């Protein structure tokens, strides 16, 4: 997993600039504007969507990047935002997880997906209380862009464990009408493939050692942008 900071080399990142964390390529990032600029815009879109929901107006875009608001984008970047895309938005408030909602497959424009998932992570993740105005100033945002899903053909659990790439793969597990996913970032807390798969099955509402012929596995990579800590 590679990590790089945005910025022009002349100063430290501002509060709303981001770091790019990539576990694979992403078609939204392979052409046109720099990866860091795109990350800044995606984070600003997410922050603005939350701020508007709180009745605060669009507050994030002005800080997104030197000289650039979200409504004045280069043509290549604007096109990328209007293409279908799938993302997860993760919020941490005062260093603790405060919401994570996303899309597995593209079903709307990337811009719409970022904004909708940001609002859902802030206000509709049932594990956490809704974000408040006071919380927003102490909340950092991560936007993870998902690559297309890749089927993982396996005949059993042992083969699945060998196929998984720790630190690289996000995994979608499906069986018997149950489904759950872990982003690649989860490997940081569950580095062992067996434990990773066990917890993923529990998340899906299945016994941690469940396996049957109806198991379907997909994997994917992400390019994630997280805000620099202040």
From TrEMBL:
Residues 37-230 form the AMMECR1 domain. Residues 1-19, 27-36 have a biased composition (Basic and acidic residues). Residues 1-36 are annotated as: Disordered. InterPro entries: AMMECR1 (IPR023473), AMMECR1_dom_sf (IPR036071), AMMECR1_domain (IPR002733), AMMECR1_N (IPR027485), AmmeMemoSam_A (IPR027623). PANTHER family: AMME SYNDROME CANDIDATE GENE 1 PROTEIN (PTHR13016:SF0), AMMECR1 HOMOLOG (PTHR13016). NCBIfam families: AmmeMemoSam_A, TIGR00296 family protein. This is AMMECR1 domain-containing protein.
């Amino acid at each position: 997993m590679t990590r790089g900071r945005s910025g022009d080399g002349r100063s430290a990142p501002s509060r709303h600039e981001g770091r790019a964390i990539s576990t694979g390529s992403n078609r939204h990032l392979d052409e046109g504007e720099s990866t860091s600029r795109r990350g800044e815009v995606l984070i600003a879109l997410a922050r603005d969507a939350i701020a508007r929901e709180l009745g605060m107006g669009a507050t994030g875009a002005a800080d997104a990047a030197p000289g650039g608001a979200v409504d004045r984008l280069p043509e290549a970047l604007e096109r990328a935002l209007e293409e279908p895309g799938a993302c997860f938005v993760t919020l941490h408030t005062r260093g603790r997880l405060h919401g994570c909602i996303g899309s597995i497959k593209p079903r709307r424009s990337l811009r719409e997906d970022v904004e909708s998932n940001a609002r859902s992570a802030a206000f509709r993740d049932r594990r956490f209380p809704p974000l408040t105005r006071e919380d927003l100033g102490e909340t950092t945002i991560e936007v993870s862009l998902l690559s297309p899903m890749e089927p993982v053909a396996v005949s059993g659990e042992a083969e699945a464990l060998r196929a998984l790439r720790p630190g690289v793969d996000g995994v979608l597990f499906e069986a018997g009408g149950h489904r759950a996913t872990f982003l690649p970032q989860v490997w940081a807390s569950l580095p062992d493939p067996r434990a990773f798969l066990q917890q993923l099955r529990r998340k899906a509402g299945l016994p941690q050692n469940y396996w049957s012929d109806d198991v379907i596995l997909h994997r994917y990579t992400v390019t994630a942008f997280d805000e620099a800590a202040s």
